[in-house]
Amino acid sequence: MNRWWTVRRGSAAAGAVALGLVAGAVPAGPVRAASIQDRQWHLDYLRVAQAHRLSTGKGVVVAVVDTGVEARHPDLAGRVLDGTDVLTHGDGRTDRNGHGTGVSGIIAASGGRNGALGIAPDARILPVGAPIGAQGTGGLVPEGIRWAVDHGARVINMSFRDKRTTGDMREAVRYALQHDVVLVAAVGNTDQDTAVVSPANIPGVLAVSAFDRKGRIWSGAVHGPQVAIAAPGVDIVTLARDQGGKVGGYVDVPGGTSAAAPMVAGAAALVRARYPEMKAPDVINRLLATATDAGPAGRDEQYGFGRLDLVGALTAKVPAVTANPLGNPAPEPSAEAAADTGSAADRWLRKVLVAASAVAGAGVLAGLLGAVLVRRSRRAR
Question: Active-site residue numbers?
């Protein structure tokens, strides 16, 4: 799994990733007081001020499965819960790289002291530190998703990629959907992938692409039939883990679907706060049904159902649905089912051996038995 951008402050790189997207530091020198929010072009594009008159995400817990979150950042003060780190067994409130802090800022930065403003500033962030970018970590990331579900998350943001779609990940997604959680994931970037990757390619997950300030799809976003919606993801100003040796500061992300996904996670938090009884399938459907169509008419492989419309999602009359419009992952075969399949195969093989013995004698039986043993040995590897 890999992160969607590399955070860089000054000339020192922190946490290189294969995607090669570099977030440049926003100068902390003499700038106008309101300049940070002035530079957050997506606030006007998404009509965030109007949306906040309807909902600010209060009472909604958004889990960020990422590199951890720097809870001491001033713009996240009081917004980061005690979480977990499935790799270090910590509380998730420190950030190994800065990526998780940037993602969390897009979702829930307070906007106080003229700082950055998040899509859902009154939501609470549940940090889930995970081995994003590491290899050989087995089921730790799916474990983090399950932990988030069990600890109150109503929305989970996943701004990471995995070329493999594992059974553990599908089961974690299925578990979350069964527990009424909205799952949001970045679709992936073309410098690493040619198609939508896991977990965004798993049925039921809101797979998010990115567009620029003119509404044009970002050239670095992968395309595919799993794309569900697009959100701002180019030249996004968000939080830095630290700057100039001090906690805090801001970074400008030139482009990445990793920055677009938390826009949609924040939108889901706004909807869940405004309509607290609404189930996850209806939250997802509301975001999709109110998206502004772009590209070819209807759903397409670049914009999905269209560009995110915060105000529309909070105000439109949208009929209820009976199921997740993005589907649900099929259950993984259970151990019992696998054992039953093996038993049936063994029974068939025994019948063949008995028949062979009756027709051709012990010599053929021995040959068949040897072949069976080889087959079983290969299957066990």
Answer: 66, 99, 258
For 271, the 3-state DSSP assignment is helix
Question: DSSP letter string over 292-358?
Answer: BP-SSSSSBTTTBT-B--HHHHHHS-----SS-TT--PPPPPPHHHHHHHHHHHHHHHHHHHHHHHH
- The per-residue pLDDT for 364 is 37
Q: How confident is residue 353, by pLDDT bands cut at 50, 70 and 90?
A: very low
Diameter of the chain by CA atoms?
94
Instruction: Indicate the helix (H) or strand (E) that contains 125.
Output: strand 124-129
3-state secondary structure of 196: coil
Take residue 28 and report the two structure tokens written for it.
């902390």
Alpha helices in the chain (DSSP H): 35-39, 41-45, 48-52, 99-108, 140-150, 167-178, 257-274, 280-289, 310-315, 335-380
pTM score, whole prediction: 0.83
Taking only the tens place, the pLDDT of each residue in 226-281 is: 999 999 999 999 999 998 889 999 999 999 999 999 999 999 999 999 999 999 99
